[in-house]
Amino acid sequence: MIQQRIIxxxxxxxxFVAIFLFSPPWLVAIIAALVILLxxxxxxxxxxxxxxxxxxxxxxxxxxxTPVAVLPGRAECLFGSIFIALLALGVRSLFGKRELRARFExxxxxxxxxxxxxxxxxxxxxxxxxxxxxxxxxFILIVTYVGDVAAFFTGTRLGRHKLAPMLSPKKTIEGALxxxxxxxxxxxxxxxxxxxxxxxxxxxxVAALLSISGQLGDLVESLIKRSCDIKDSGNMLPGHGGxxxxxxxxLLAGPLGYYLALLV
Length: 264
Known about the structure:
Layout: H1 2-22, H2 25-47, H3 53-69, H4 75-94, H5 100-127, H6 133-158, E1 162-164, E2 168-172, H7 173-193, H8 200-227, H9 243-263
Antiparallel strand pairs: 1-2
Helix pairs in contact: 1-6, 2-3, 2-5, 3-4, 3-5, 4-5, 5-9, 6-7, 6-8, 6-9, 7-8, 8-9
């Protein structure tokens, strides 16, 4: 199981790095739109399984167009997409045929899904437009997935105290601390190997923040799955669950990395 986790993490990092390194910006946006489309579908299948076809299509279109909208590299386009989603989904809920409470709950779940998947992942398209995007992309992906694997390994071998038993019974405090320690070490290693633009201190605290955000992203997805009483977000990746199960740790780490890049 641990070996499988390591292989999966390495494969994902290699895939994402290859996409960002060898694809022009427009292709990155299209690939991001495809991933967002699949992940949003999984989210809606979990939270709104009885959603009408028209409402499902509207959510998918709004989600998949966002990474294309931010292709020029202007953050205001991302915020504008949030307003458009709020406007479109809000107007749609006004004229639905279901009971008012059900319409409002569907509006809340749809908007959260847009923010949780499309808004967060679109930050990777914005990262691609920064002058020093390459080391930042590598840094975010490497430290986040290193932390994910280390947390799983440490929790499996040494875990004794539950971290959030209602959300994820297998996650432990020891695992979280192991993931944090490994992430910090990986961040410092990245600084030595390819990220000379960061000081040693910056590499350490940026990596620590990315570790925390990655673990929080994992827990948020666990909250969604537990509330829907399901184990995996989907079965698009046989033996590995769904798309969301594999990218949950970067959903919050990506945006945080983008804003830290602007800050640093």
